[in-house]
Hints:
Layout: E1 10-14, E2 18-21, H1 22-34, E3 40-49, E4 55-66, E5 70-72, H2 74-84, H3 87-108, E6 114-118, H4 121-124, H5 129-140, E7 147-152, H6 153-157, H7 160-173, E8 176-182, H8 188-194, E9 199-202, H9 204-207, H10 214-229, E10 233-236, H11 242-250, E11 255-256, H12 267-276
Parallel strand pairs: 4-6, 6-7, 7-8, 8-9, 9-10, 10-11
Antiparallel strand pairs: 1-2, 3-4, 3-11, 4-5
Helix pairs in contact: 1-2, 3-5
The protein binds ligand C2E and magnesium ion (3 copies).
Amino acid sequence: LVKKDLKDNYCFYSQELQYKSLEQVKMINHLRRATENNEFYLLYQPIIDLQNGKLMGAEALLRWDNPELGIVSPVKFIPLAEKMGFIYDIEKWVLKTALMQKREWRDKNYPNLKISINISGKRIVSAGLIREIRELLQETGLKAEEIQLEVTETAVMKNMDASIKILNEIKNMGIQIALDDFGTGYSSLTYLKKLPIDLVKLDREFIKNISTANNDRLIVEHIIKLLQKLNIKVVAEGIEQEEQTAILRGHHCDYGQGYLFGKPVSKEEFERLMLSVSF
Length: 279
Ligand code: C2E
Ligand code: MG
Ligand code: MG
Ligand code: MG
């Protein structure tokens, strides 16, 4: 099945991978060693309580800085890491680093800050995740209540029953579960019933036009109402304008995240933000 030749930018790699562009093959080879070469770091983006303007939490967002490739977006490398099975080690590092950071901030800056961590679908159903979380809680001395895990519906969809089982266990430990990118997937509403979620993060696509498009505003308003009835807290993603904040506040949206409040920043910058923030 190998067509033409390698110069055509296609390369036979392995059966599982099928055909990858040369760029992807290169990326995979770098990604393979990225954890041991310390090429990952985390940025933190503020999550604001829209009712009182205070800082509620920080979402940890992964960054990869490779000497040859430069800074690569997680949108590009995370799907590859999932396919190649590197995601387990990478996210193990993410979880540990984020929890240790949270522990440091709890002690010296901001005791009530929640730390929010993205987790890939493959990892949710992987063996040993629960044990890994328990061990990290012990090691860092953090309480489960101080942590939120963000999952996407596309991630859990592939392994619905197994994911529900594990997410239930995690929730029972006291960790909060957030459904990320809500509204971008398929039959969103059914997941609200099936999944043990505490929060829903309304995707940026929903929020983008709420100050100009009546339809979008109506949809957001009623989703928030529905979620409140289901006892699920709402985080609006991608807030960039004051008007959006005002509308969301008016509809009693609980939390907001977006460039208006702060972009993802280094731990040092986040510490400065913790001293000053009130919106
Ligand atoms: P996400 O979890 O939905 O994270 C929010 C993304 O939106 C971030 O992009 C953030 O920088 C961006 N964003 C936040 N506010 C605004 C805004 O006001 N305007 C605009 N235009 N964008 C905004 P980022 O950091 O590039 O991350 C992209 C995605 O990569 C994340 O989406 C998440 O799904 C994934 N990701 C990042 N770190 C991890 C990780 O450790 N594990 C997994 N599985 N996925 C991760
Ligand atoms: Mg997220
Ligand atoms: Mg999100
Ligand atoms: Mg998103």
